[in-house]
Amino acid sequence: MNPTDWLLALSLLGTAVFAINGALTAIQAARLDIVGVITLGTITALGGGILRDALLGILPPEGLADWRFLTTALVSSALVFAVHKPLAKLARWVTIFDAAGLSLFSVTGTLVALEHGAGPLLAIILGTTTAVGGGTFRDLLTSRVPQILTSDLYAIPAMVGALATWAIWSLPWHSTALYLGAAALCFAIRMIGVRFKLHAPRVQP
Amino acid sequence: MNPTDWLLALSLLGTAVFAINGALTAIQAARLDIVGVITLGTITALGGGILRDALLGILPPEGLADWRFLTTALVSSALVFAVHKPLAKLARWVTIFDAAGLSLFSVTGTLVALEHGAGPLLAIILGTTTAVGGGTFRDLLTSRVPQILTSDLYAIPAMVGALATWAIWSLPWHSTALYLGAAALCFAIRMIGVRFKLHAPRVQP
Amino acid sequence: MNPTDWLLALSLLGTAVFAINGALTAIQAARLDIVGVITLGTITALGGGILRDALLGILPPEGLADWRFLTTALVSSALVFAVHKPLAKLARWVTIFDAAGLSLFSVTGTLVALEHGAGPLLAIILGTTTAVGGGTFRDLLTSRVPQILTSDLYAIPAMVGALATWAIWSLPWHSTALYLGAAALCFAIRMIGVRFKLHAPRVQP
Asked: Residue C64: closest CA among chain A residues belongs to which residue?
């Protein structure tokens, strides 16, 4: 595959895992009906990329204009609604799919911004925004304080992934394997944070 | 009236009924002061169209750039504050005005998107977004989980209205009466859903 | 300094005071970790300007594209996290910094809109939006009903500041001192409202 194909494939994969996460959240946290589950899954999946595109001036945003993103989000969410019963421990999977989406979108979001002429700082911010945006919409819509504010090590791995992506992009040569490494780095930091309940310094009372 | 005049008239009517809905919600749910009532009414009225225009790249959005929309929203909200006491059963009227706004905006939102070159899929999504957007902002601002996630048959009638609007627009000829029929269809499905407490399939515990 | 420098200086000052307000809110209301404090401070500081730029079609928004805004927001928020302990009565300072940001942004937001060709009505709306936008995002992210809906005299002083700014801008001559006067007027109305618990007319039960 050429680089554009890889970027598209990773973006669609990120869309699918975030849709699954959003749909599982809807079932686990809010017990919504099928329309609510698909709506929350789709907004979680497409929200970060739509926010990034809106801030870059790519309008209408790719997530709405390209049928492949919308279809991926709708079908993934609907599948969760159809097959969710066998999933015994939803909470764990919610976290894993969220971390996977975070990692993939921190890489693809940064690359999209760089390809549209953004400088390093803007690209890293927009990559992080892409990664955390969908989950933030998901949390706002279900009346929860978003993970970017409360969760131990959530924004930081996304920023590390975005920073690594920019660094790789700046190399004289770069390969898809390196970008997958950046996503894996983000995923590892996030899951280590979840596993060992690591957190950034807190305010002392 | 020519087609553009009809579209404007229906859009302004949708703006007025959503402003009334938002202002009634403010009074009923939150007992806000006059500024809060007018603010919530105006955001409910203009939010969906502003979101649609922002996603289409129509900036500044018509709802802010055209004084007729803003004036309609402000005056309708202020009137509700002035005359609300005679309204005995607010809850019922909140629902009816919400359904009316949903129906009018699903038609006008889809038509605006089609006139700006959107394909069928994007137009139906943006028509639905126009219809449900203002109410979603209203619910977020008053700390409630939005109706698009929780309410039985809320997004579905908006989508049916948008789909019908696209179908009419695709005909070799089309008349305003047909578009009013599409809005009436959306309204009927929504109110039947409310009346008989119909809902989409739920997650089985 | 020439006019553009003054506008930039006031915008950066508004960014700093809103970042301090957002970071203090994070510490006081939510006891977040350092990432949460900096994130909430930065969103409070940049949110209003980003929303204004997005509605004007200035994309990417200045708050993200110009490193000076982002750096100001990040450093101000981080400083609050570092030195917050000596601040004995946080609540009072939260209110004062919020009123300062409201005043500065109502002036600078209106001027940016006017300089980008907005008419009086649109400029006053976007100036008010710039002033209240960041605080609204702050409140939504911390699951509170926003001050624009609930707080006595919050949107009104912002609107007065925006209106005064437009009036000054329309004069055959205008000076920075006059614009500072418009900001002081907004600040005075807001603080008088807070001090004497003034409020707009309420709904009678």
From this structure: A122
